[in-house]
Amino acid sequence: MLDDVSIIARTAAASMDDIAAAAGRAGTKTAGVVIDDAAVTPSYVTGLSPARELPIIWKITKGSFFNKLVILLPGAIILSEFLPWLIIWILMLGGAFLCYEGAEKVLEKLGGAKHGKTLEDEITDPVAFENQRVAGAVRTDLILSAEIMAITLNELALDVWWERAIALGIVAVVVTVAVYGAVALIVKMDDVGLHLTEKDSPSAQKFGAFLVNSVPKLLVALSFIGTIAMLWVGGGIIVHGTHEVGFHLLYDIAHGAEYWVAGVTGALSGIAGWFTYAAISGVLGLAFGALIAFVIHKVIGYEGAH
Questions:
Q1: pTM of the complete model
Q2: Rounded to an integer, what distance in angstroms lies between the CA atom of residue 252 and that of residue 56?
Q3: Residues 193/211, Cβ–Cβ less than 8 Å
Q4: Could you give the CA distance from residue 215 to residue 217 in angstroms, rounded to a whole number?
């Protein structure tokens, strides 16, 4: 009996190792969306009282856990069991959203009209405005989380449904803690820096001033990185998805260029080839997103929630 128990235990341990490894491999594929999530979230506490920043981030974090573990994880498992062919279409739908969001940010930077409420709007009811910010952040998180879960599910090579569920749960928890932990650190950096500037130590004051001055630049950099990540990931999903459903033109263009560049760059072939594929995916994502934005704002006439 002890032999049987030990065999079962070893089998279970091996299975958990496989799940952890699969979760790790799948999780790396979500990097672009995770970067985007971390870049977007600080904007939801910008302009609000510093005392409310961490409580708001905690509210958004709880909403993100609910999105991933209560709404998306069961849905993903049901899809993988009964409608696996639908996953690629959901991926492309999410990819189209990322392309649209990224393209709209680029168009706004180039002088296009802004859509929806902006930070310049007057805040007449702080409580209502905070609740609106949290609700908006959780809605955005739902879309980005759906993309993370769909990408993860698409990469998992696990045959048993409960193994896929555990792997998805691991990715969901790790990504959520990493993203909103990083966001909490980012939005409080200036407060920490301000506190350090009041210390007696010159080195502490100097480091505090560095933190205070770095936060605005970091937020700008994150916004830029997040936009690039949206277009690169969204475009890459569209390229891969259209290939999976039988339309090969975009895939052939992107991978053809990748292989050509890799073939002529010698020792840098891996990096150069990947960068070429990512750049083409980003350009395609920008074009596709701009087309969606044109249809939404010029053809349909939707200008966003105010």
A1: 0.72
A2: 45
A3: yes
A4: 5
